Amino acid sequence: MTRASDGVTRALDGLLSRCAGLVPPERRGWAVAVRTEAGEVPAGAARLRWVAGGLWLVAREAQMVRRIGYGLAVVAVAVTAWLVARDVWSAALAGRDAGWDKARLVLLLVLLAGLPWVGRRRGVFGPVGASIAARAVRAGGCAAVLILVLDLARFEHFPGAGGGSLWPGSGWAREAAILALIATCTAAVLIVRARWPQVNPVLLAWCAVVPGLALFITVAPVQVLITVYVAGIFAVTTRRSPVTPATLAICASIGTAGGLLVVALWNPTRSARAAGLPPRTDVPFLFLVLVVAAAAGTAAAGAVAVRRTRGTAGDPLALSKTRIWQCLAAGPLTAAAAALMLPLLRANAAVHFAAACPAARHGQCTSASAIWLLFLVAGPVVGFAIGSFAAAATAHQPPDRPLTPPHEPPPVDAKPGDAKPGDAKSGGVYVRNT
Amino acid sequence: MARGSGFSAQALLVLAALSGAPSDWRHGYDLARETGLKSGTLYPILIRLADRGLMEARWEEGRPAGRPPRHLYRLSSDGLARAQAALAAAPVAAPPAAAPRRGASPRRRGLAGEAL
Fold first, then answer.
1. Which of A26, A429, A430, A432 to mutate to test the interface with B (most CBs of B within 10 A)?
2. How far apart are CA A315 and CA A404, in angstroms?
3. Distance in Å, alpha carbon of A252 to nearest chain B alpha carbon
4. Is the pTM here over 0.80, yes or no?
5. A277-319 tens-digit pLDDT
6. Closest approach of chain A CAs to the CA of B29, in angstroms?
7. CA torsion sign, A156 to A159 to A164 to A170?
């Protein structure tokens, strides 16, 4: 037993020696320190634990978990892109717009290829927050979106079931007109900027982004929807996000539970309008379930936000702002989590139904993807409305406990990125105060 | 958790060990034995303390016989002041003299857990 333990210890020690090179040079001495101390530790299980702790230290300091996570993200995006491309190109797409549907899928793949890069950059979308909730929501949300992309690619084979353009007509003339309109809008912004440089750039950006997005939605609705979902997931889980880990955890949990309920109640064949199938539709009822889930998530997140006084530095205005952010984010987040469950868990049934539906070729079946899009678009919009009401109701409620005074300032020699009292990311030195 | 002091329970154990004889240079296994912390917990704490200037670290000088030079640690003057203030606000129960039993974390043993 001891001999086996010594063998494992030697192997781990060798691994530690090799892995120490992964640690940044200024930290490498610490890994060496653990190795040199290992000789002091009694041989056997105690030394084995010591060396294993050294490996954990190396993994931590080399940010290996993060590197592995980003590596997995790149692999997941690449695999999704390959599967979508294979699915779309191996079998002929139906309809006259097949070429443009392919072009839209290529556009989507280009957008997805930027995901890991965007997630690592410091800014509105990255890096990810330190909390487990933020990491789980980001990883789970992105995985769900990638699966959604795969499902939508499978639906491209059924006319009217994919996410084509909302513009009437078809062909090159229509696409050229759309592109010309987009080019005109872009040129208008550039001309205004050049002609009147005193115009507020932020206002100009908003004036360009809102109609541009609206126009783009009509050209490639699915691509815009998925981009907005990904942007939303990244924005709420970033380190600078005002949405707290508690809100993220509550909304993800309640949204997932609500989505599972919708999945359990949904029967894809009953939602169809095809001849020979029951005419009743259960979509409004299912949407009501989603709305109730969004309301429950908002209420729970709002209740937690009302109890929360931490991080407000004793400022009632900051407290109101925190509550407003939690409520505004909670509704859309819960609804989006619930809506994503439907395509994730009932894709196969919906695809089989679409393939088997005798009227599908004539566009007479209610497309499952159309129902999904209804949930994915209308759900967060209704959730936002619920969140707005909740924000108005909770913003000025008195706190349950007295406001905490401001925290002690961080040490003067602390670097900008360093953890300080009150931070969750502190390597075990500091803990979050309440 | 050591609420209010700004340090975790494990960090307080390390600070208590280092502030016991502030002028002495201590090495990692010595601190691990005194605090009962495992290397994977102890060294990240030492790294953060050193990063914040609360602790000084240096390599042992010379070439000791039969073993490699050790990495040595002691509190800086700022660290000693912070440690004393934190320990006064949240006193740590006496740490174990020997390495802890398997699975017996400081929190489970009741060290500085709820009291802090």
1. A429
2. 9
3. 27
4. no
5. 444 457 788 888 888 888 888 888 878 877 765 555 566 777 7
6. 6
7. positive
